[in-house]
Amino acid sequence: xxxxxxxxxxxxxxxxxxxxxxxxxxxxxxxxxxxxxxxxxxxxxxxxxxxxxxxxxxxxxxxxxxxxxxxxxxxxxxxxxxxxxxxxxxxxxxxxxxxxxxxxxxxxxxxxxxxxxxxxxxxxxxxxxxxxxxxxxxxxxxxxxxxxxxxxxxxxxxxxxxxxxxxxxxxxxxxxxxxxxx
Length: 182
Fold this sequence. Notes:
Shape: elongated
Radius of gyration: 24 Å
Number of helices: 7
Largest sheet: 5 strands, antiparallel
Distance between the termini: 69 Å
Strand order of the largest sheet: 5-4-8-7-6
Low-confidence stretches: none
Number of strands: 8
Helix content: 40-55%
Mean pLDDT: 80
Order of helices and strands: HEHEHEHEEHHEEEH
Strand content: 25-35%
């Protein structure tokens, strides 16, 4: 195996190990001299390592595979949503705010509440208009708030397997500067 490892181009290996050793890897015929190993002791440490460094191969127990892939995917998704120049939020079908990215949370509390209420209203209208198998699962509006703010809000439904609205996703674009120019 070690000659195959060298010829495969695998140089850096992340090992998720509960006991802190690379004995399991060496039992596969891979020697520590064949590649650079980084051993971590938890899923969280593995996610951090994968975020900060490049690895050619990740080895973990099969019971750790699903939690590790979900944690990495969740972290990447959250990073993307946080880096957007638009506000993004998740709401319950009843309009309770579950999560909002930093752009959305940067607005004053009263502005955020107006956005949440408008998104909730759009979500309620959307749920009433959805027909089984419908392709169109979003509604949009422009929300002026006083003289200072205006937002273009698009709400999309996330459907459960039974076709019911499970969550609402709202994209919130700040249109305040454009509105002031008009």
